[in-house]
Design brief:
Helix content of chain A: over 70%
Structural class of chain D: mainly alpha
Shape of chain A: globular
Number of strands of chain D: 2
Strand content of chain A: under 5%
Mean pLDDT of chain A: 80
Number of helices of chain A: 12
Distance between the termini of chain D: 25 Å
Oligomer: heterotetramer
Chains: A mainly alpha, B alpha+beta, C alpha/beta, D mainly alpha
CATH architecture of chain D: Orthogonal Bundle
Low-confidence stretches of chain D: none
Radius of gyration of chain D: 23 Å
Strand content of chain D: under 5%
CATH superfamily of chain D: MetI-like
Shape of chain D: globular
CATH topology of chain D: MetI-like fold
Structural class of chain A: mainly alpha
């Protein structure tokens, strides 16, 4: 038995005054500085174009094309004014919100139901289904835009919300099914069985028990499918006219043959990014988890 | 190889996880760090391994200061609570991994891995991958991987806590056998006092970041230095009662028979150690309570009897205070009145505030 | 594909007439007033929906003109317009009209797509309408330039009212020419142009600019040069003869045009290969180039000091040429959709447009390619839009008008694209100009099937 | 419960597909009734095999996809490891870095076109400040493809990063500590432990990105429309031209189908070769 220290009742600070040698601390702070340095480089690369877009949105036509670029200028809201007054941005915004909002909801509901069915009931060939879902995502949109245009014409759906809602619902479905299947699987069956024993119907189990547990997954999915539908251009421009025109069409319209309205284009880009960025910020905690599609369980 | 740590501190933000821990572990010792979860034992182990930066202090292997060595330069092996196997590698590749990164030739790697696998009886699993084998098997693989490289120090972080009760006991004996065969210095972290008692040549009990007592298992059991150690070790735990040292003459405690069992001389001895302290905690281990048949002076009533086969837990109440005693097989029944007796030497009197055990003298088991 | 070949349906000519009666606006129409249809009852408000693109004169249609016309009809007719990006305008026209859609009552279209609309019977001729229904108002063409007739008339019939007329204009920096000691051009040949471009290239200013990134814009650049070489019978386009055989490389003039383009390439800004119409004006406003030849309607704002650093320093004249005195014209027209349910109202609206004030509203909205003679004669307008001085030069030099090339074929967009691809490949140096022209001829012949 | 999905899939997904399959066996020019129209068996498909522009577009698409996905994988992985450090402020930076993927591709295209403008753009200006001569970017036939790849990497690396980051975060810690203790250097830990353990996540991220990347249209259309001189003429842009400039709808459909079949073959090969779905299914079974 060797000499052992007594149980120490000493106060903190007595021994900690003795600090690690300089080399050790320096190496560590060098490492921290390197991390922050790289983060700064990444931030500049990923944020500068967005910054430039935001800045341009508030520039006058003379400032926005100025060369060398001007960094200090008198900000103006003219671009936004023009968007609203002569480019119909407000009604397009309303259309976008209705179309994208509804289709996101529908895709969520249908997709979650399908995911629930796939995950809970033993359906053969899950691998094939996953593959098929992926295929829908791979379709070049240009393949289906002309048939859909004719379909919409035939059934009087052209330039209505319904056709775009249907298309965006389809676009979102594969994603929802894929992500939600994983979240359904992670809900212990025993919880649902307990609810059944406690006298819930199957539907009540779904809405009262399972759905709340799937919320993180739903949140992540909402952001992604909302984003894709919100930013979709080809169908929006082909399947609508004036009544159901959405924001991406307005955005494309800012490229005028006599000069890109750089300010207008930036303003509409900024305007459009706001809802998505807000949504993503709200759900970003869940985004990380929701996006691994069950390949990793986080 | 001996391990010496001096004044180890670990601060996480404002929280002090490890507070000025120093200890010297001898070559070949099986040293257990014991304590409840969050007491800093795992952090201490990880600082020894080099996985955690330390806020202050020094770590020596023999006489070499390894405080700022990266883990890979310390020549140690470690078994993790969740085994830390590489999920993408087969069992044999897992075992060979340390040899591979050390640049051992392939044939040599295979030979050594085969030997270790043989010794741990996992030769039939070599081709499988970790997700395909059971917890006990993973545990063996992790041990094999640690043993294959003949490390200087063997670190184990709660290696048995993910196993079921039965397997835990059998693995426990196996680990003890393997490690003592190899004669490697081992530092072992656990919160299970039985495991600690069974394995250790010496135990260090930790609480709230501090090392409160170091000693061999029986010392720790018989002479707990503090109220914490006393209550942490033993099952069922030590009975504890609030009491007062009113004067050099009197130890007041309910149930009264306890106070009565302590001689005046001994009360004075306690009182001299801390004359100003009134509140004390009086402790007695359940197996030190002797239950006699009631001969008039019965002082307790039986409330519940738990026959465990080997022994029996008898739950009693005296002076409206409940406590438990452990006896051999007994015919006692609920409602029986019994006479409870205890030896003065088995009664611990501890400072209510600091927790210090007056029954253990400072140089008693705690070294200098 | 079965199409409604009858451009004017009975129901649609009759009902509006009755409306006019009740409004007390046309006595003659009373004679034709017959059975009311459920769709459009007398006194119902009518909405005319117009397919527009995103340029100033179409802005005017959906704003000031819409208001004025609504007031003019006492609130009976409202005008709505939908702006299509120029890039998407062509495909939208085809998709809409080929499916027989009545979404748009009036469709605006670039010159080069006109044959498509007419040959497919997607639009209603103005003169046949008038012939069928004499109660319709007369169309007053006399206050407008002659150029647009070229591209809105087929088989002796009028198919559209013209909205604008564009023509090549040579824009140059007066100050830079003066500094370099170059006499400013009334009429240059291409050698003089190249020479000036060389001299003007310095200090971050390019001698000249081209817009090679856009199909239509690059074709313009090439055609300005093509037409400078050989006399053509008036009315012939430079691309195909009357039998739709390629003639753009007759006597190697296509090759020579490409060589010209390659010669001035070193004196162009770096971005020249990706520049399209929208990139031109900022380039000149910021003073990055000294000379450019391009369509008149693509250079607005050069003399606006709030967006142009070199406002007031630009001169305008006719496009350089070697030995021909023809000048291309192109522009936009407004057509009546053959599937529209409001053809009569559409006609009335177009007739009202031709009364004149609407064209002044074009100008007020910022349009610079004017065709309304009273505007063009006004000194204030000319001072306001110095670009228009090019018309004076055209008149002074006695040039004749000729229409922009591919307007004569039905699949103009495709033909233009094929030629564009070959021209750009040759300018980029992927092919020799000769090979490119041969390939272009082959591909155009193939594209003319059927 | 599968019914609504099935209905939407049929009406909006399968029907147009079937229609375009049928059209692909037709000569169909809605823009020009005087052209021959009608059923022509496999003529469109035969034409496609001889179409040099289609091959050119396919080659460009392959280069574009491989380099864009490859670059965003490397950068995304580096970012995932970088942001896995526990240091103050990184959480905010991590969120900010997601912004590019949230911006409308149309606006992304326009913004980058403005910035890439060789004569008026801010990028050449900034490069000029540090003494780098101005580049042609989108206008240069040598750099245009690179430039559109840069934009794609810019926009979608955050998406890649998000998936990889989730993967890195969910990795158990102990194998890395085991490896450190077993004597592995940082590089060895990365190649022998991190990479193999991240394999399923990497495969997933690559698959998702690649499938999206081959369809990229909006940004490139806004930036170059396939130019200059067709150096950025990806399949999606060529398809748009065939369909909407030439209005050769039958041929466009045939090209689309060939492209889709090729893509499916590539994806299936990728999945089979990498055992991606199998490993996911195994994981699920446990």
């Amino acid at each position: 038995m060797t000499t052992l220290p007594r149980p120490s009742l000493s106060l903190p600070g007595r021994r900690s005054a003795e600090s690690p040698p300089w080399g050790y601390r320096a190496r560590r702070s060098l490492k921290v500085m390197a991390v922050y340095g790289m983060v700064a480089v990444a931030l500049v690369f990923f944020l500068f174009p967005y910054f430039w877009m935001v800045v341009s949105a508030f520039k006058s036509p003379g400032d926005v094309t100025a060369y060398p670029p001007v960094w200090l200028f008198e900000p103006t809201l003219d671009n936004f004014r023009e968007l609203i007054e002569s480019m119909g941005a407000l009604s397009a915004l309303r259309n976008s919100l209705i179309v994208v909002g509804l289709s996101t909801c529908l895709a969520l509901i249908f997709g979650t139901m399908a995911a629930y069915a796939l995950a809970r009931f033993n359906i053969k060939g899950k691998e094939t289904i996953a593959l098929e879902i992926l295929m829908v995502r791979m379709l070049p949109p240009i393949v289906s835009v002309i048939p859909l245009f004719l379909l919409a014409r035939k059934f009087g759906l052209f330039d209505t919300y319904w056709i775009l809602i249907a298309v965006y619902t389809l676009m979102g479905l594969p994603f929802v099914v894929w992500v939600m299947r994983v979240f359904v699987q992670e809900i212990p069956r025993s919880i649902e069985e307990a609810a059944l024993v406690d006298g819930c119907t199957r539907l009540q189990v779904l809405f009262r028990i399972s759905l709340p547990l799937m919320l993180p997954g739903l949140a992540a999915t909402v952001v992604i499918i909302f984003m894709f539908a919100w930013n979709e251009y080809l169908f929006a421009t082909m399947l609508t006219s004036s009544a159901a025109k959405t924001l991406p069409v307005v955005a494309a319209n800012t490229v005028k043959p006599r000069g890109i309205s750089w300010g207008l284009a930036s303003a509409v880009g900024l305007l459009m990014s706001i809802p998505v960025v807000v949504l993503a910020l709200l759900a970003q905690r869940y985004l990380v988890r929701g996006l691994t599609f069950g390949v990793v369980k986080g | 190889m001996g391990v010496r740590i001096e004044g180890l501190w670990k601060l996480f933000g404002g929280h002090t996880a490890v507070r000025d821990v120093s200890v010297e572990i001898e070559d070949g010792e099986f040293f257990v760090l014991l304590g409840p979860s969050g007491c800093g034992k795992t952090t201490t182990l990880r600082m020894i391994a080099g996985l955690e930066n330390l806020s202050a202090g020094r770590v020596f292997f023999d006489d070499e200061d390894v405080t700022f060595f990266e883990p890979r330069r310390r020549d140690i092996a470690m078994v993790f609570q969740d085994y830390g196997l590489y999920p993408h590698l087969s069992v044999v590749d897992n075992i060979m991994f340390p040899l591979k990164v050390a640049g051992v030739p392939k044939d040599e790697r295979r030979r050594r891995a085969g030997e270790v696998a043989e010794r741990l009886e996992i030769s039939s699993l070599l081709k499988r991958k970790p997700p395909q084998i059971s917890g006990g098997e993973k545990q063996r693989v992790a041990l094999a991987r640690a043993l294959v490289r003949n490390p200087k120090v063997f670190l184990m972080d709660e290696p048995l806590s993910n196993l079921d009760a039965k397997l835990r006991v059998s693995m426990r004996t196996e680990i003890k056998r393997l490690v003592s065969d190899a004669g490697i210095t081992t530092i072992y972290v656990t919160h299970d006092q039985i495991e600690a008692m069974a394995l250790a040549t010496r135990i260090a009990v930790m609480n709230q970041g501090e090392m409160v007592q170091v000693g061999n298992p029986l010392e720790i059991y018989d002479r707990p230095a503090t109220r914490f150690v006393a209550s942490f070790i033993g099952s069922p735990p030590m009975n504890m009662f609030d009491g007062r040292l009113n004067s050099a003459e009197e130890l007041e405690v309910v149930p009264r028979f306890l106070g009565e069992a302590v001689s005046r001389a001994r009360v004075r001895q306690f009182y001299e150690q801390a004359p100003s302290i009134g509140g004390v905690v009086v402790g007695v281990r359940p197996e030190h309570l002797r239950l006699g048949a009631s001969v008039g002076a019965s002082n307790a009533v039986v409330e519940l009897v738990e026959p465990l086969g080997q022994s029996t837990n008898v739950y009693l109440r005296a002076d409206a205070t409940p406590f438990v005693a452990v006896t051999n097989r007994t015919t006692l029944q609920v409602g029986d009145r019994v006479d409870v007796q205890v030896d003065e030497s088995n009664i611990h009197v501890m400072d209510k505030e600091t927790g210090r055990n007056f029954a253990v003298s400072p140089d008693d088991g705690l070294g200098a | 594909m079965p199409k409604n070949l009858n451009p004017v349906r009975g129901a649609h000519t009759h009902t509006p007439s009755r409306r006019t009666v009740l409004k007390g606006l046309g006595a003659a129409a009373a004679a034709t007033a017959v059975g009311p249809s459920l769709k459009a009852r007398a006194g119902d408000a009518v909405n005319l929906n117009i397919m527009l693109t995103n340029i100033p004169w179409t802005d005017a249609i959906s704003s000031t003109i819409a208001e004025a016309y609504n007031a003019h009809t006492g609130g009976r007719v409202t005008i709505t317009g939908e702006q299509m990006p120029y890039e998407a305008h062509y495909e939208k026209i085809i998709l809409e009209l080929s499916s027989g859609s009545s979404t748009f009552d009036i469709v605006t279209s670039d010159t080069i797509w006109i044959r498509q609309l007419v040959n497919n019977n997607w639009v209603t001729g103005l003169e046949p309408m008038k012939a069928k229904d004499p109660s319709l108002p007369d169309l007053n063409w006399k206050d407008f330039l002659d150029g647009p007739y070229l591209f809105s008339t087929f088989n002796g019939q009028r198919w559209a009212i013209h909205a604008t007329q564009s023509t090549p204009v040579f824009v140059y920096r007066k100050d830079l020419l003066e500094q370099a000691g170059i006499e400013p051009p009334p009429l240059w040949n291409w050698d003089q142009y190249l020479d000036a471009a060389k001299k003007l290239t310095k200090n971050g200013v390019s001698g000249t600019a081209m817009l090679l990134g856009g199909q239509d814009a690059c074709m313009g650049d090439w055609m300005f040069r093509v037409m400078g070489y050989d006399p053509n019978p008036p009315g012939n386009d430079f691309l195909l003869n009357d039998d739709n055989e390629p003639i753009f490389n007759e006597n190697d003039r296509g090759v020579r045009a490409i060589e010209r383009m390659k010669e001035i390439l070193p004196y162009c800004p770096q971005g020249v290969f990706n520049f399209d119409y929208p990139d031109g004006p900022p380039l000149m406003q910021e003073g990055q180039a000294a000379l450019v030849v391009h369509w008149l309607d693509m250079w607005p704002g050069l003399d606006d000091p709030s967006i142009s650093k070199f406002a007031g320093k630009f001169g305008y004249t006719v496009s350089p040429t070697d030995n021909v005195s023809q000048h291309m014209v192109a522009g936009w027209g407004m057509f009546i959709n053959a599937f529209s349910e409001h053809q009569r109202e559409a006609y009335e609206f177009l007739a009202w447009m031709l009364e004149g004030p609407a064209y002044q509203m074009f100008r007020e909205a910022g349009e610079t390619t004017l065709i309304y003679k009273p505007d063009l004669a006004s000194p204030e307008v000319k001072a306001q839009i110095p670009l228009l001085s090019v018309y004076d030069d055209i008149n002074r030099l006695g040039t004749t008008y000729t229409a922009f090339p591919p307007y004569k074929v039905t699949n103009a967009a495709e033909v233009q694209r094929l030629v564009y691809e070959e021209v750009i490949a040759a300018v980029a140096g992927d092919k020799t100009p000769q090979a490119a022209m041969r390939d272009a001829e082959d591909r155009v012949v193939k594209a003319m099937r059927g | 419960m599968l019914a609504p999905t099935f209905i939407v899939l049929t009406a909006v997904g399968i029907y147009p597909l079937g229609y375009s399959l049928w059209i692909s066996f037709n000569d169909y020019h809605p823009s020009n009734p005087s052209f021959p129209q009608g059923f022509i068996w496999f003529e469109n498909y035969l034409t496609a095999f001889l179409d040099g522009q289609a091959r050119h577009a396919l080659g460009l698409t392959a280069i574009f996809t491989v380099s864009s996905v490859g670059a965003s994988l490397v950068i995304g992985f580096a970012l995932a490891l970088l942001f896995n450090q526990r240091l103050p402020g990184l959480a905010i930076a991590r969120t900010l870095i997601l912004i590019p993927m949230l911006v409308t591709p149309i606006a992304v295209g326009i913004t980058w076109r403005i910035m890439f403008n060789p004569d008026l753009g801010v990028i050449n200006y900034l490069l000029g400040l540090i003494g780098i001569p101005s580049q042609g970017w989108l206008a240069s036939m040598n750099q245009s493809l690179l430039s559109v790849i840069v934009v794609d990497v810019w926009q979608w690396t955050p998406f890649m990063f998000l998936i990889l980051f989730a993967g890195v975060r969910s990795l158990p810690r102990s194998p890395f500590e085991s490896a450190a203790i077993d004597g592995a250097s940082r590089a060895k830990i990365f190649f022998l432990v991190t990479l193999p353990m991240m394999r399923p996540v990497i495969l997933l991220a690559v698959l998702l990105r690649a499938v999206d990347s081959v369809r990229t249209f909006d940004q490139i259309f806004m930036m170059t429309r396939g130019g200059p001189n067709q150096t950025t003429d990806l399949v999606s842009l060529y398809l748009q031209r065939v369909n909407f400039k030439f209005f050769d709808i039958g041929y466009g459909a045939a090209l689309s189908w060939l492209f889709l079949i090729l893509l499916m073959a590539a994806v299936i090969a990728f999945i089979r070769y990498s055992g991606f779905l199998r490993s996911a299914a195994e994981k699920e079974a446990r």
